[in-house]
Amino acid sequence: MDYRLLADEALLKFLKISDELAFEEIYLRNWRQLYYAALNKINNKEVAEDIIQTVFTDLWEKRERHSIKNISAYLGTSVKYQVINYIKSAISKKAHLSHISESRKTEENNNDLALLVKELNEAIDMAINQLPQKTQTIFRLSRFERHSNKDISRIMDVSEKAVEYHITQSLKALQLNLRDFMLVDLPLVVFFLAF
Amino acid sequence: MHRKAFRQLLRRYLDNSCTDEERRIIDRWYELLDNEQAPRSNEELTEVEKRLWQKIQAVTTKESTAIPFRNHKNNWLNYAVAASFIGVVVLVGSLVFKNKNISSNTPSLVIAKVNQGFSEEINNSGNIKKIQLEDGSFVSIYPGSKLAFPKHFAHDKREVYLEGEALFTVSKNPNHPFFVYNNQIVTRVLGTSFTVQNKNGKIEVAVQTGRVAVYENGEQINLNEVEQKSNGVIITPNQKVTYYQQERHFVTSIVDQPVPAPTETSQPEIANHFNYNETPVYKVLQDLEDTYKLEIVLENEKIKNCLFTGDLSNQNMFNKLESICVAFSSSYEIKGTRILLKSGKDCE
After folding, report:
1. Per-residue pLDDT tens digits for B280-334
2. Which residue, among B277, B297, B278, B301, has the nearest Cα to B288 in the 3D structure?
3. What Rg, from alpha-carbon coordinates, does chain B have?
4. Which SS3 state, helix, strand or coil, does residue B106 take?
5. Whole-angstrom Cα distance, residue B85 to residue B346?
6. What CATH class does A109-191 carry?
7. Is the overall model pTM greater than 0.80, yes or no?
8. For chain A, which has fewer Cβ within 10 Å, the N-terminal or C-terminal residue?
9. B284 exposed, middle or buried (CB, 10 Å; 0-12, 13-18, 19+)?
10. Cis before B268? omega within 30
């Protein structure tokens, strides 16, 4: 039986009855895209590999009670949660190093949170508004409305290469303008500043 | 301050306890995190693919031996190919197609496998012929049917090829999944007994115990551009699936005569525990569900506490259901793999 011929929906059904071959095929179909996604966000191969490993072992552990409709979307979201979780832990570690007392650290402050949400929101809007109009539109289509580069090239009537270029330029400019909210702080990579 | 608040925000996002606005801002922030990555070489990716899979397997297959990576080819396949040159092509002339209209353009899988050196069992007698395979599994081959199986199973799976009808009782071994190929469909078995039959353009698989997965064999059905991938279903005891070959369509339902299904630990008790005296009907139905491993749905929830008195022992499942229905002036209907008990009179 060649599992490469099976539809994703069928693989998901067989995963439910602990079919390891279906699990392997799901891995083979999805790991690469997920690995790149994690690597893009974290920029650290070891961490990216750990994240992929966690995502797939979690999937196996949940295999009998899952109700997944779209496996690649499900795994993509799992990676996103793992990445955010990693960044959250990295912030905790950093906080620990800078001698913030445990009691103060765990104390929640809703004013700070509201302020942060407001500031971050404004900073992102402002940074995006500073981009040239066309770049802005392409970036919004790509990142906030989730169109593929192919779709965008059709909508905007430009080549796919041009779409890629605009997005790369946006990310560079945005990361520069949002320095206060993300800092390349190796080895923790994406990091948070200003306190 | 910022850092603490930010960590708190991320934690709320992960806990799913944040507001819509907070969620939106984190989603936006996340999209901005991308770093440009140099494309990796194929060698590097292949190596990562293998290493990661080994790590994942170390966690997922704790007590069992590792599944070999796909790149490792099956030994018997090589032997089979070699054997086909030596030639075991004796039986071709005497074979009969049961479903001529369907498989006229599909070469027989059984013949193909025999040509590759597989052993073959043909039942030309009028009685069921029971054989044992090298793994201890039993196959009851029905009259006019035939089975091809390798002289020795591969180290990672057991594959047999069937034409016609047979009952399989497969020994449980999760590390060596058992596959039955039957024309356009493949049945994946996990320690179980079930029957496969093929007639009039339909293939039917019915399960007695355990669970099986049934899917289209992509190599056999010339998939077109639109439907590149094949499909499948899972069936459990007392369920059957009928595959309509022309339409490439699976229909699941209940077997004609459900029998008590054994559980993992015990053999079924067909004995006299179906004797009820003023028992709430939901408990009676629960007994039926547990015994036959089928789901029963009540259309009218109100009858579930009605009291039932009567002895249903020594009746088959459908007669048991009839007796219950008579008592509450209701009726039952089979909906796919479930039994729907139609509304009867309320008790209160």
Report:
1. 988 899 889 988 889 998 887 878 888 889 888 888 899 999 988 888 888 898 8
2. B297
3. 27
4. coil
5. 73
6. mainly alpha
7. no
8. C
9. buried
10. no
Beta-carbon separation of A10 and B30 below 8 A: no
| Candidate from A5-19, A57-71, B314-328 with smallest mean pLDDT | A5-19
Q: Say which residues have a Cβ less than 8 Å from residue A14's Cβ, sequence separation at least 6.
A: A6, A21, A22, B188, B213, B215, B232, B234
Which domains are assigned to chain B?
Answer: 75-254 (2.60.120.1440), 275-341 (3.55.50.30)
Which sequence spans correspond to the domains of chain A? 3-92, 109-191
The pLDDT-based confidence of B113 (bands split at 50, 70, 90) is confident
- CATH fold of A3-92: Rna Polymerase Sigma Factor; Chain: A (1.10.1740)
Give the residue from B13, B23, B29, B42 with the most A CB atoms within 10 Å of its CB, the best one to mutate. Answer: B29
Q: Are strands A183-184 and A190-191 parallel, antiparallel or unpaired?
A: antiparallel
Residue B285's nearest CA partner among B269, B297, B277, B268 is B297
B314 touches A: beta carbon within 8 Å? no
The answer to whether B300 contacts chain A (CB < 8 Å) is no
Cβ–Cβ contact A182 with B under 8 A: yes
pLDDT at B97 over 80: no
